[in-house]
Amino acid sequence: KEMIKMVRGEAGIKALLGTTDMRLVEEQLKNGDKEAELIYSAMAYKVAKAIGGMATVLNRDLDCIILTGGIAYSEYIGDIITEMVKTIAPVVIVPGEYEMQALASGAVRILSGKEEAKKY
Asked: Are residues 29 and 37 in contact, defined by beta-carbon separation less than 8 angstroms?
């Protein structure tokens, strides 16, 4: 249980910068914290790399890339990722952690005939 807690809640940005609150990290960036900038840039790079990797194996043209969840609240990281992946597809940033609600809403639109299902 300790290992799971450590990996899920104490790793990543929290382990490196002591917080998971991206507003605090962005405050560090505004104050010129070079370590925070390096870590944040590395995180953006890893996200962009994962998007690029998925784009190649999906074997389809992408309609868009959607950044959502907590990371999407950060304009700074959103801009970095967008710059890195914008040649793959347009990037849409939807702040929030309501992915399941968005999926359910999409299903309702398809089932009610308001939208056509896309096949991937």
From this structure: yes
pLDDT per residue over 97-117, tens digit each? 666 777 788 888 889 988 888
> Are residues 17 and 25 in contact, defined by beta-carbon separation less than 8 angstroms?
yes
Tokens of 84: 């890195």
> Measuring CA to CA, which residue among 26, 16, 6, 4 is closest to residue 75?
26
Helix (H, G, I), strand (E, B) or coil at 97: coil
Task: Look up the pTM and report it.
Answer: 0.71
The runs of H, that is alpha helices, within the chain are: 2-9, 12-17, 22-30, 34-57, 75-85, 99-111
Length of the chain, in residues? 120
Closest CA relative to residue 71, chosen from 15, 16, 25, 3:
25
| Domains of the chain in sequence order | 2-111 (3.30.420.40)
How many of the other CB atoms lie within 10 Å of CB of 100? 8
Q: What percent of the chain has pLDDT over 70?
A: 92
